[in-house]
Amino acid sequence: MEHTAGHKSGYVAIIGKPNAGKSTLMNRLLGSKVSITTHKPQTTRHQILGIHSEDDLQIIFLDTPGVINPRYELQKAMMKTVDRARADADIILLIVDVTDYEVPGRIFEMLSSLKGKKIFLVINKIDKTSGQQTEVVAKNIREKFDFDDTLLVSALNGEGLQELMDTIKTNLKEGPPFYPKDMLSEQPVRFFVAEMIREQLFLRYHQEIPYSSTIEIVQYDERDDLDYISADIIVNRDSQKGILIGKGGKAIKQLGRNAREVIEEFVEKKVYLDLHVKVRDKWREDPNRVRHYGYGY
Ligand SMILES: Nc1nc2c(ncn2[C@@H]2O[C@H](COP(=O)(O)OP(=O)(O)OP(=O)(O)O)[C@@H](O)[C@H]2O)c(=O)[nH]1
């Protein structure tokens, strides 16, 4: 049996409003892109797990969807994911964008209901404002909740991240590694491939298209010379199909090219990416479909 005396481990949930920088922070702490990030809110829909291992410790980060007031079934499933992450975690990081510092009451309620966990306030994007302003924001938030510690960081340029990492390590409890030490995440390759295609939707389309779409990998064949991937882009309404495809298929071809390049870099192999657009009327509002596409569970 593996000798684990002196070894530390724990789950760290990263929560906060949409666009606070949660995914950027996790990727930066891991030194690797595990979670997709874009300038648009609500990019993250699943609980994304990122594993940081050293000889004598293992930290399992849980990146979560931004906390919102859910309006449709997909968003309800996203919030269920946040609930589960905070329940699973030993340490919770509340990420607050220093330039968008209003913390909704529901987040404090959520934190107040937790017992026996360390809860840290992490003020992010401090590169965007003065030190004085950052202090004022931190002080105001601390008046509303008794955090175990406050950290000021920039997930983008790395400022304060070493201190954050040290604080997490100090607060880890003794425990065995939960995953093999060379593992970075637990989702299969096809999950990341779907996320990379979805990221392109967020980067390339406006308004409701990214929020109305999901990706289903229909076929993934690892061939000798290349990986053949067939994926469906599922949209919510018929009218969205045309917009997605674009005139003469131009828009979707460009999306496919961009996604393929990112996927090739990830799998370190040539990729043939076959994309199809499918309409599944109001899938976002349908609990069965939302579950079928893997959200909330
Ligand atoms: N200037 C600055 N921008 C940042 C920083 N951290 C994140 N951002 C930017 O903020 C935007 C949102 O970042 P994400 O990491 O996707 O945010 P998120 O909290 O995961 O967002 P959701 O998926 O909506 O929950 C991106 O455009 C990031 O580049 C930071 O420290 N400084």
Automatic annotation (TrEMBL):
UniProt-annotated stretches for the region G1: 16-23
Chain spans, region G5: 153-155
Pfam families: KH_2 (PF07650), MMR_HSR1 (PF01926)
Domain KH type-2: 197-281
Transmembrane regions listed in the UniProt entry: none
Domain Era-type G: from-to ranges: 8-174
Biological processes annotated in GO: ribosomal small subunit assembly
Residue span of region G3: 63-66
Keyword RNA-binding: yes
Keywords: Cell membrane, Cytoplasm, GTP-binding, Membrane, Nucleotide-binding, Ribosome biogenesis, RNA-binding, rRNA-binding
Binding residues annotated for GTP, in chain numbering: 16-23, 63-67, 124-127
Membrane topology, from the record: Peripheral membrane protein
Chain positions covered by the region annotation G2: 42-46
Location(s), subcellular: Cytoplasm; Cell membrane
Main location: cytoplasm
Gene Ontology annotations for the cellular component aspect, listed alphabetically: cytoplasm; plasma membrane
GO terms for MF: GTP binding; GTPase activity; ribosomal small subunit binding; small ribosomal subunit rRNA binding
UniProt cross-references to InterPro entries, sorted A to Z: G_ERA_dom, GTP-bd, GTPase_Era-like, KH_dom-like_a/b, KH_dom_type_2, KH_sf_prok-type, P-loop_NTPase, Small_GTP-bd
Residue ranges, annotated region (G4): 124-127
Chain's role: An essential GTPase that binds both GDP and GTP, with rapid nucleotide exchange. Plays a role in 16S rRNA processing and 30S ribosomal subunit biogenesis and possibly also in cell cycle regulation and energy metabolism.
NCBIfam families: era, PRK00089.1, small_GTP
PANTHER family the record matches: GTPASE ERA, GTPASE ERA-LIKE, CHLOROPLASTIC
UniProt similarity note: Belongs to the TRAFAC class TrmE-Era-EngA-EngB-Septin-like GTPase superfamily. Era GTPase family.
Subunit field text: Monomer.
Protein name, entry field: GTPase Era
Gene name per UniProt: era
